[in-house]
Amino acid sequence: MRNTYILSAVALFTLGLHGMACLPNGADSGWDTNPGEEGTGGDEDTGGTPPKPGEPPRFSFFVTSLEAMRELSGSQKGFGGDLRFGEATGLEGADKICRTIAEKAMPGAGQKVWRAFLSASTGGPDGGPVHAIDRIGEGPWYDRNGRLVAQDKAGLLNEARPRSHSRIKNDLPNERGEPNHQGVDNHDILTGSDKQGRFQGGGMGGTCNDWTSALGSTGRPYCGHSWPRRAGSSRGAHWLSDHQVPGCAPGVSLVENGSGSGTNTVGGAGGYGAIYCFALTP
User: What interhelical angle do 90-105 and 66-73 show, nearest 10?
Assistant: First the structure.
C-alpha cells in the first residue's frame, strides 16, 4: 500500500511540472481555476479558450505604460495631445505608438495591425468624425498574458467596465501584462469618446485638434478610467468616458488632483496621457 501512495505522488508531481511547462515564460495563464470568484463576469472569467498547440500567443490589448510613453516621446512629460509620432495625422501616429510598444513587449506582435482607441472630429465617412469603436476590429481581445479583455464589442460597451477576466476588469493592464495602477493615481486614459466609443463632440478641441496639438489651451478631450476612481461606486468607474482632462499640454500627475488643480495638461487630473491599444487580430 505504501508503494502505491509513493507512485501516485510521483505521478501527480510529474503532471504538475508538465502543465507548468506549457505556459509562456513568466506568463499568468489567465485560465481561472476559481470561476466562482466574486466580481466575475460569467464565462469571460475563464480567460476564454486556451490557444491550440502551435498557435501564437494571444496579445491584442494594453494600456500604454508611463515608461513607454516617456521613452517614445523623449520627454518625462510624455506626448501630451500631439500623438503624430512622425506620421501625418494624430491617429496614424497613435497607431504607430501602439505598434511600437507592442513589438517591444512581445517581439513579433508589432506585425499585427494595432489601433489606438481614439476618436477624431474629422476624417470619417463623408468628412464626418471618426469613432474609436469603429477602428478596433470585432474581437476577441486579450492582454499580454492571454487573459480575456472582451469577447466582442458588446463586451466592451454594455457596462461601465469591460466584461474581462476578473483579475484585470478593474485594473486594465499595460503592455507588460501588469496592473497599471501600482499605487499611484494614473487612471485617466485619453479616448475623445463617449460611453459607446463614439466621438464625444466639442469640435477639434475635444481631440486636441485631432491629436496634433500639445498646446494646453487647445481643448479638453474626454478620458476614461483604466481603474475605478471610487471603490464600490459607479461614479468615476467608466473605462471609456468619464470626464474631460484639463488640457492638451504634456504632463504627468500621479496624485489625485480632482479636476487638475489648474494645470492644463493631459495628465493634470491623474494620469500621463496614456491610450488604449487594440489589435485587429487576437
Answer: 120
